[in-house]
Amino acid sequence: MSRLEGKVALITGAARGQGRSHALHMAAEGADVIAIDICDDIASSPNPLATEADLDETRRLVEEAGRRIVTATVDVRDRVRLADAVDDAVTALGGLDVIVANAGISAFGPAVPVQGFVDAFDVDFVGVVNTVSVALPHLPEGSSIIAIGSIAALASQVNRSDGLGLQGPGAAGYGLAKSMLCGYTKSLALVLADQRIRVNAVHPTNVDTDMLHIDAIYRTFRPDLAEPTRADAEIGFTFMHAIPVPYVDPADISHAVVYLASDESRYVTGQQLFIDAGAALKAGL
Q1: 3-class DSSP state for residue 202?
Q2: Which end of the chain is more exposed for a tag (fewer CB within 10 A), N or C?
Q3: What is the dihedral of CA 39, 45, 47, 53, to 10 degrees?
Q4: Extents of the domains making up the chain
Q5: Structure pTM?
Q6: Looking at the annotation, which residues are catalytic?
Q7: DSSP bridge partners of 10
Q8: CATH for 8-210+251-272?
């Protein structure tokens, strides 16, 4: 298991969920890890975010896998602090080869205030731009940049007749941010191609993480019910997909991330990879 042997990967939003999964899968393939997370809540977001204890657990699990890890508690919206944290971590680990811009929040539902639009867009798009901007000077030839997008966001940008479009100011900010990653990664891929630095985006459908399993999202997917349960929401989740499953596992996204980080994908750039159980097909994307 050495597809990433000798590489150092920066992962934002690494304290839990998809980010932790990416860290563990990359460590299992030989990578050392720089793990960054805000480890604090954002007031406009209806779901609790990761904690310092979560980030410590990511550290423990990566070290248990026999790899080095540097962690930092940083908000990706703060470019100055983010740059300092990345610079220090790269110095400690001796380099940087992969960026996984994974940090994101969802703020679905009509009860979310207008500030939810600002926060969701700033974390989900500006946070990606900040991460790439501060880490790019450290990348050598042959490096890989991976942005984590969203099929749900892309689907919300087209006309939906099924009642499952994203709702509220926070969802609008989320949808705009994630959809803009398509153009951003394609343009950046062209700009960096001469340096042999690859840039790709991975767009998951619903992923079985803490971020998905909250009341606000259950209500978004089952607006016909006053108090939808997880089982109720799973019916709505499944309706999104051509393959009849409610969600995918974080590992399904991590497998794609490992591939795009490895030299196996050395000529793959500018791509939008859907890990979505056929959701894009159903949405007409």
Answers
A1: strand
A2: N
A3: 0
A4: 8-210+251-272
A5: 0.94
A6: 174
A7: 34, 99
A8: 3.40.50.720
